[in-house]
Amino acid sequence: MRALHVAIDGPAASGKTTVARGLAARLHLLYLDTGAMYRALTFLALQTRTEADNAAALRHLCEAGLIRVELDAAAPLGFRVFAGDAELGEAALQSNEVTAIVSTVAAHPAVREAMVAAQRAIAARGSVVMAGRDIGTVVLPDAPVKIFLTASVDARVERRRAQLARAGVDSSTHLLKEEIEERDRLDAGRAVAPLLAAPDARTIDSSEMSADQVVETIAAIVEGVRAEA
């Protein structure tokens, strides 16, 4: 059977990570949150004192094989991500220090080129549900199922706060709102692969929906696509 690629894009804290992982479990597929790769690179940049605006040095970290991903449904994140020899958990990836500069790191064309190549290589291994901000538009433009998941700012703030609390990271609702609105601005205004819905993506507003409801909605879409194949 041909590999099934499901691309789920959306702004920060729209619920795409939770939904993508739930959908992967529902469909018995592997799952990857590509944002974790950019966060892992940012974590490594902080550890190696690599400046966030040094695109050449950041790309070198990528091409040196220091950022690695292993798809593993049994892992705490639903996959394993490594920075150097260290496997990173949610607390490290979601730390305030990483969050403060990850948009700057991810905006570099050289960094995105290296990351996209790595993400496509992962998808080439087989079926996967992949979440991010440019999956349907850049990474997997031929994916048969493309979803653009959005939600109100208030809903996203609450989801981010809950996510950080689970990771043991303190947060302020006011600061989270400012952070999310700034992240939206940076992602939408990025020169390379800005955040936007693919022309053939199905947009789902999850503001008033539970994660399970969104998963079931997308699962129905997938089954429809499979039936037409």
Descriptive overview:
The structure is a single chain. With 229 residues, the chain is of the alpha/beta class. It has one domain (5-218): Rossmann fold, CATH 3.40.50.300. The protein has ten helices and eight strands. A hairpin with a 2-residue loop joins strand 4 and strand 5 (86-87). Helix 2 packs across helix 5 and helix 3 packs parallel to helix 6 (109-123). The chain is globular. The N and C termini lie close together (11 Å). The model has no long low-confidence stretch (mean pLDDT 94).
Topology:
Elements: E1 5-9, H1 16-27, E2 30-33, H2 35-48, H3 55-63, E3 67-71, E4 79-83, E5 86-87, H4 90-93, H5 96-106, H6 109-123, E6 128-132, H7 135-139, E7 145-150, H8 153-166, H9 173-189, E8 202-205, H10 211-228
Parallel strand pairs: 1-6, 1-7, 2-6, 7-8
Antiparallel strand pairs: 3-4, 4-5
Helix pairs in contact: 1-10, 2-5, 3-6, 8-9
- In total, the number of strands is 8
Shape category: globular
The radius of gyration over CA amounts to: 17 Å
Q: Helical proportion? A: 40-55%
Strand content: 15-25%
* N-to-C series of helices and strands: EHEHHEEEHHHEHEHHEH
CATH-scheme architecture? 3-Layer(aba) Sandwich
Low-confidence stretches: none
Q: Report the mean per-residue pLDDT as an integer.
A: 94
Largest sheet: 5 strands, parallel
- Estimated structural class: alpha/beta
Count of runs of 4 or more consecutive helical residues: 10
CATH superfamily: P-loop containing nucleotide triphosphate hydrolases
CATH topology: Rossmann fold
Report how far apart the termini are.
11 Å
**Would you state the CATH class?**
Alpha Beta
Main-sheet strand order equals 2-6-1-7-8
Domain module tally: 1
